[in-house]
Specification:
The chain is α/β, with parallel strands linked by helices. Helix content is about 35%, strand content about 25%. It has helices at about 5-10, 10-15, 20-35, 70-80, 140-150, 165-180, 215-220, 235-250, 265-270, 275-280, 305-310, 315-320, 350-360, 365-370, 380-385, 395-400, and strands spanning about 35-40, 45-55, 55-65, 90-95, 105-110, 115-125, 155-160, 185-190, 200-205, 230, 250-255, 285-295, 300, 325, 335-350. β4 (about 90-95) and β5 form a beta hairpin. The longest helix has 16 residues, at about 165-180. The two termini are about 45 Å apart.
């Protein structure tokens, strides 16, 4: 039973419900489930409380609608927000006390037609180890990434949807450089927001309200004598131009950009008015990232996927396939999954790829050339995860159907 339901059914709640205790129970439930986000949303007849566990929303409880204003008020107090403001979005940060195990809460409150929706992102201080070797990348991807991080200049890009592990990978890359080079390296970051404080790194948070943008911060950082620069996201042509120029002038620049596949990052940058010859000279590699749920090691068993799913598996691969699926147990909260695995594709820019880039070929043609040069696609690496029993075929199709090659 959840902490929330247990409290609502207790004698203490019957004598007079305390909203501060209820809110603590909601957050404790999210922590217990290992959730990344907690959603508290007014529906037609109740307040739906859901937690995003391993990337999927899971129901935690349903509460009476009359509690919404009190719950919202409590979160506003925790995050030092304006308590009397109910019609405008608000964002803030709170640090949980001992009862919440010191978890950092990033609180977002948004007005809807039924009342305020609250989403809380949880950052657990006990889970702040950033080590590339422990992230679970495929061996070929990890070795290629380490080779790129040995370079002293150039642009290393990560792409993928929100919550695909881009920030964790970039932070782990910075920590790898720090461990390798120690105090001899100067590292600066520009982020929105700064998610974790890293030792020996000069971190800056942009503030658009004061016109302190990525572009302005990056331009100023160039005068701070950095060797490695991390830019949270390349969003606009000005930031893209400065990042590319920095990569060309003796800096290793690590950043993210939104595109469907790794090859799409070049099209996106060209659309931001960056010349192909500049990209051919500056970009070292682009890594596409997704996260899939890992089979629970305690209850995973062999199984036969339905024929409709097996259609996506090449005939030659079926003979050696070892499909596994979790049946559900207490260790995985009856879901069959525990934790997540990265699925990646690493596009390394080499001479044949540069030549194609200068010819301004399409994204699909760039991807085909990268595959010919040895890149394993998201779909290929994801399918390998399913064929070797690390996750289910259903999960791979759910996450990677759009990336099927």
């Amino acid at each position: 039973m959840s902490y929330t339901i247990e409290y609502l059914q207790s004698e203490a709640a019957a004598q007079g419900l305390e909203v501060s205790v209820l809110v603590n129970c909601l957050v404790q439930d999210a922590i217990r489930l290992g959730a990344s986000d907690l959603h508290i949303e007014p529906w037609e007849d109740s307040i739906a409380v859901r937690a995003r566990v391993n990337g999927v929303l899971t129901e935690v409880a349903h509460l009476p609608l009359e509690l919404l204003d009190k719950i919202s008020m409590r979160f506003k107090v925790l995050a030092n927000l304006v308590t009397y403001e109910a019609g405008m979005p608000q964002d803030g940060v709170a640090i949980g006390g001992p009862e919440l195990e010191g978890v950092q809460l990033r609180i977002s409150i948004f007005p809807t037609t039924r009342g305020e929706k609250i989403v809380v992102r949880l950052f657990d201080p006990r889970d702040r180890r950033f080590e590339l070797a422990t992230l679970g990348f495929e061996d070929s991807t990890l070795q290629g990434l380490l080779r790129a991080l040995k370079r002293s200049s150039g642009l290393l890009l990560f792409t993928g949807p929100t919550g695909s592990g881009k920030t964790s990978t970039m932070y782990s890359s910075l920590c790898y450089i720090m461990q390798r080079d120690g105090v001899s390296v100067s590292i600066s970051t520009v982020e929105d927001p700064v998610e974790f404080n890293l030792p020996m790194v000069s971190q800056t948070q942009i503030n658009p309200a004061k016109d302190f943008t990525y572009a302005k911060a990056l331009r100023s950082i160039m005068r701070q004598d950095p060797q490695v620069i991390m830019v949270g996201e390349i969003r606009d042509p000005e930031t893209a131009a400065i990042a590319v120029q920095a990569g060309l002038t003796g800096h290793l620049v690590i950043s993210t950009i939104h595109s469907g596949v790794a090859a799409g990052a070049f099209t996106r940058l060209i659309n931001m008015e960056i010349e192909p010859f500049m990209l051919a000279s500056s970009v070292l590699a682009v890594m596409g990232l997704r996260l899939v749920r890992r089979n629970c090691p305690s209850c995973a068993q062999p199984y036969d996927p339905p024929p409709s799913q097996l259609k996506v598996v090449p005939e030659a691969a079926l003979a050696d396939a070892r499909f596994r699926r979790g049946t559900g147990c207490d260790q995985c909260n009856q879901t069959g999954y525990q934790g997540r695995l990265p699925v990646s594709e690493l596009l390394v820019v080499n001479e044949p790829f540069r030549e194609a880039l200068l010819r301004k070929v399409t994204t699909s043609a760039l991807e085909e050339i990268a595959i010919q040069q040895g890149m394993r696609t998201l779909w290929q690496n994801g399918l390998y995860r399913a064929l070797t029993g690390q996750t289910t075929l259903e999960e791979i199709i759910r996450v990677l159907a759009a990336d099927m090659v």
